[in-house]
Specification:
By secondary structure, the protein is an alpha+beta fold. It has one domain (12-178). The protein is 30% helix and 13% strand. It is built from two helices and five strands, in the order ααβββββ. It has helices at 2-7, 13-61; strands at 94-98, 109-110, 136-141, 150-155, 175-178. A five-stranded antiparallel sheet has the order 2-1-3-4-5, covered by helices on one side. A hairpin with an 8-residue loop joins strand 3 (136-141) and strand 4 (150-155). The longest helix is centred in the first third of the chain and has 49 residues, at 13-61. The radius of gyration is 25 Å and the shape is rod-shaped.
Length: 183
């Protein structure tokens, strides 16, 4: 009997099946959490870029050419309404910018690599190509591939969002209007 124990090498089939079952249970618990964390990390793109748009708008409104107003175009060459904001790399979100809630200017939409476009909800009328006293920038994407979209908004100080479908945001701070990623 003692001689049989000394010659035993490797694991039994039962031991291997138990290890595989434990790994399967751990994977079943970890993969959904990993996907949620991955989607949350992707959301930082919108928050960072909306913060960049806000910074560019504040910088633009401080120039003598702006007269204290905000720009209406992202990065149009030769335009005195351009805030000089451009994205690098591949963006997951689409961005729109409006003044007084209505899209103004010729260069106020950045489309995501996926081709999705989000529209800024209208609040009050403003003419095309005009300089405005308030602005709203929005970012939207379908981050986790399900039906609702992720929609983020940033407002200028003093901007009033009077849409019944969207909550009032905190000025100069990205606000999730519709958070696609579950907590």
């Amino acid at each position: 009997m003692l001689n049989k124990m000394k010659n035993r090498k490797g694991f039994t089939l039962i031991e291997l099946m138990i290890v595989v079952a434990i790994i399967g249970i751990l994977a079943a618990l970890a993969i959904p959490n990993f996907l949620t964390y991955q989607a949350r990390a992707r959301q930082t793109e919108s928050q960072t870029n909306l913060g960049g748009i806000n910074t560019a708008q504040i910088a633009y409104s401080g120039t003598s050419a702006s007269g204290g107003n905000y720009g209406s175009e992202f990065n149009k060459a030769g335009s005195n309404l351009s805030i000089g904001f451009a994205l690098t790399g591949t963006n997951r979100y689409s961005y729109t910018m409006s003044g007084n809630g209505v899209a103004v200017g010729a260069d106020n939409t950045i489309t995501a690599a996926t081709g999705a476009v989000c529209l800024t909800p209208p609040v009050s009328a403003a003419g095309s190509g005009t300089v405005t006293t308030t602005y709203q920038a929005s970012a939207c994407a379908n981050i986790d591939g399900d039906n609702p979209i992720d929609f983020w908004t940033i407002l200028s100080p003093g901007h009033s969002l009077v849409s019944a479908t969207l909550p009032a945001g905190i000025p100069s701070f990205p606000t999730a209007t519709s958070n696609d990623v579950l907590n």
